[in-house]
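Provenance and format

Records in this collection were gathered into a single text stream. Each protein contributes a sequence line and a token line. The two records reproduced below are adjacent in the stream.
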Amino acid sequence: MCRVSSAVRHRLINFLQSLGLLAAMGGMAWIIVATIAGPEVTAAIIIGSVIGMMLLPSLPKDALLMAHRAKRITGEQFPEGVGTLAELSRRAALPRVPSLYYIPSKLPNAFAVGSPEDSAICVSDGLLRLLDLRELSGVLAHEISHIAHNDLWIMGLADVMSRAVSIASWIGQFLLILNLPLVVSGQAYIPWHIPLLLVFSPTIMALMQLALSRTREYDADHGAASLTGDPDGLASALSKLERKTGRFWEDIVLPGRRIPQPSLLRTHPPTEERIRRLREIRNLAPRPRMPGALIEYPVRDDLAPPRFGKFGFFQ
């Protein structure tokens, strides 16, 4: 009962944090866009965006898979991985088992795309080389938790608001520059807080988006541990990823990039903190643990070093 209460409290706190951050981002988006376009146009933009997000609950799955040169992994090619994904999806009560895709990249990477009804999980060549099956199970459970909790839709909504603020900020700054002669000559008056909002609002939105992503990551870690009954498996995978890549890839992906690519390293909290939290929940109700055998999937030896692809993704 104590473990159940702790899990419920954890989920409630994360939900409230996510709700608060989304509300703050929505408020900031309203202020900035309304300053430039007026409240009526802003209301129309918001209504249109919400309808669009409801009709298109995630980024176009096929387009992202094509951009990453992803190839479908069948049960004949990788029965352990596909079987593990099916079992984890059953435990998560997903309406449909996500498809598993292989990405020809040396960068250790995993991400999910789509909606609970039609989703895919991609794993890179570098990830399959690095992890054993137990650790991969933790990573797959992490991505399944994102899908089950609709995190892809939530982060997509945050993406739309962040981009709207960024565009409005640039337009507003351009208009300010055009009207600068009138301001200097005293023919126009602009409240002092308007330029500050226009300059700093994209950074504030980026920080809130980062905080939202981190909250969802902690929740996905907790969900993965619940699905596998083996938080140490995911902790071991995270430790290997940290040793293999360090903070180098995050330093490349994050600076100056408003919405980084979906990735196991995307805007994540410090690995040490994630591992600490996972080890604190070792007493979750145990489930049959996934095997720790080496992964037998035909990885490639002719891949180029990680680089930015023609679609702008680092792979």
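Adjacent record:
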Amino acid sequence: MADTDHRFLMLIDNDPAQSRLITALAGREGWRVMVVKNAEDALSSLDTRQGMQISTVILDQGAAGSDACELITELKKSRPALPILMLTTSTSPLLAVEAMRAGATDYLVKPASPDRLVQALRSAATPNTRRDELTPLTEKMPAMLEFDAMIGTAPTFRDALAKAAKAARGHGSILIEGESGTGKEMLARAIHAASPRTKLPFRLINITSAPGNSLESILFGHEKGAFPGAFERQIGAFEKNDGGTLVLDEIDRLTPDMQERLAKTLSSNQIRPVGAKHSFRVDVRIIAASNLPLEELVNSGHFRSDLYELLASTKVALPPLRERSGDIPALARHFLHRIGEQPGLRPLGITDSALLLLAAFDWPGNVRQLQAVLFRAAVFCDGDALTAQDFPQLSEMLGEQEEDPHKPSQEGVGVMLYTDDGHLRPLEEIEADVIRLAIGHYRGRMTEVARRLGIGRSTLYRKLSDLGIDNAA
């Protein structure tokens, strides 16, 4: 019990239902919770004897309105080391920037899943090792839907994309497996965008986010009076998305009874809302996403084999970022370009020393965590490019590098700039490597290579000849 004595949460929230939910979730994690409804009560509570024991704050923007960032600043003035987690319905990157600059530790877009809330609390509760810059922020940038927007040249990653792109043209179910943060949702959206159903409805449902026992109603709907509290008829996701695509995220968390219900629905293509007397036919493409390998859950008896077969017409496995660390430079530059387009931010470069640092980390939160770390670093960067010094806690975690972190590195950058004796390589050699890298990255599409390099196709082919590059390489 001693290790939870410091877990005292102040929840600033004027929504009774949400307050009860967060209090219950935090209680299961060993937190005591103080609920206050507005900024004035929050600031006055910090000065009390009980308030001095508060170790973390969750602030719902709805309780502070437009003054949320000012409240964060005031809380930080009183308790500089206090972790503050901000809940908001806004997906505006500008609000994320303002909240972090005010001192917010984490930024969660509602509805945040129970797992995400628990993860944020656990991160805040870790004594002496809290790593603000590694917190998996949930700020949203506009989703990129095309397969070509998914960056990476690692063979396992490219194979997964090729398999998904081929399956997108059909109508069968697709199972996407991969650790949290590997890009399963983005891939599901790309599949829908490339499918014959692209102009029809698309919806993503996170299995663990469904409150209480409401998942059955969310998926299949219910009739008025079907159960206590069913005051009106509810149309389920299957009916609403008839003709379109339905993504079931974290399918590995589905309960046994819901597994049976879903298996019957997929095998018959018919649904029956709760309390209804008759079934009716629907045409919905299912994309299931799982953090765990479903086949292993089938073998251990935790997942129905018939449902697995129905879901896994095509199975796509996304590799974790630690298994494709060579993609980190391209991903970092891609994210920084997109981050620089957001309100309140500006375009930034990234140095070799920073890329070396990023490549040395194993990224348990995968691509999503990398994006969050770059976003946070960009918020506080005063220069024109991110350096290793912009990731101080990451440097601390990894320890001293064997090489001088200020020395430009060849590792993980994609193109070697320096020879072994520390001198710059000839420009002709660097140019040849850049062209080879571009050909590989764009999979031999020479028109795209030329466009991205900012030269004409004829100029590109002349350079290939002059530099002795085989464009098939």
